[in-house]
Specification:
The chain contains 8 helices and 8 strands; from the N terminus they run ααβαβαββαβααβαββ. By secondary structure, the chain is of the alpha/beta class. Strands 3-2-1-4-5-8-6-7 form an 8-stranded mixed beta sheet.
Length: 247
């Protein structure tokens, strides 16, 4: 694949995550991170002999739990070198062999066709407008082996039965950072050529604050994972699919 010319979004997020890398993990601690990591491992089922690519790996939110759960070969790729340096520090502190790290652009993955048994991308594609999503997803499919598993996270427009819109309006006014959503019709347009497509949901907005407000309510976290067909009720939507073994 030839080099992709960066667009305005690439430049924006390269700068943003360069500056955010130092304290990025401080915003994603506690039950959310722990439960999400457990869900990713459960949906991918990593094991020795597998080769897994994490696209937009950041500080290792998916890569490190996958490495801790198995002997799989894991490659973490991100557009921001500063985020990868943080992930490397965390890997070394944990005494893990994997992941290895690659700086690159998700719209032109620097890997041959059919290179990986699984490809995962968490907390990345909500940053880009819908017309740009196909380029990312197509590249992930390209490097995935036939029969391999693809797991991609998006934001849901129906999170908390629509409450998410109030939160996002406030976020944009205070932080000025784009957020984009996966609507049901996008599932077929992005994954129509894949098999066993499943829509899983994760986290209902306000769940963390509710659980922290009263120790007796901590049990509410068991509802963090929403299985099909209730995936779109979750704040995050994780699409799991399989690449066909034959054309």
């Amino acid at each position: 694949m030839g080099r992709v010319v960066d667009n305005a979004y690439d430049e924006r997020y390269r700068r943003w995550y360069r500056d955010a890398a130092k304290d990025y993990d401080d915003r994603f601690q506690g039950s959310f991170a722990e439960l999400q990591a457990r869900m990713i491992v459960d949906l991918l089922q990593p094991r020795g002999g597998m080769r897994i690519l994490d696209v937009g790996a950041g500080t290792g939110r998916a890569s490190l739990p996958l490495a801790q759960a198995s002997d799989a070969e894991i490659i973490s790729m991100d557009i921001a070198p500063e985020m990868l340096r943080k992930a490397r520090e965390k890997r070394d502190q944990a005494g893990l062999q994997w992941p290895a790290f690659v700086n690159g652009n998700g719209r032109a993955l620097p890997f041959p066709d059919a290179s990986f048994d699984a490809v995962v991308s968490i907390r990345v594609l909500h940053l880009f407008p819908t017309p740009q999503l196909g380029a990312f997803v197509d590249e992930m499919k390209r490097v995935l082996k036939p029969g391999g598993t693809l797991l991609i996270e998006f934001n849901s427009p129906f999170a908390g039965f629509g409450w998410v819109f109030v939160r996002e309006l406030s976020r944009r006014r205070t932080r000025g950072k784009d957020r984009h959503y996966l609507w049901p019709q996008h599932v077929s347009s992005l994954f129509g050529d894949m098999e066993q497509v499943q829509v899983h949901g994760f986290w209902i907005p306000g769940m963390g604050k509710l659980a922290r407000s009263n120790p007796r309510l901590k049990d509410v976290l068991r509802f963090a994972r929403l299985r099909p067909p209730f995936g779109f009720v979750g704040d995050k939507v994780l699409i799991r699919s399989k690449k066909p073994t034959s054309p």
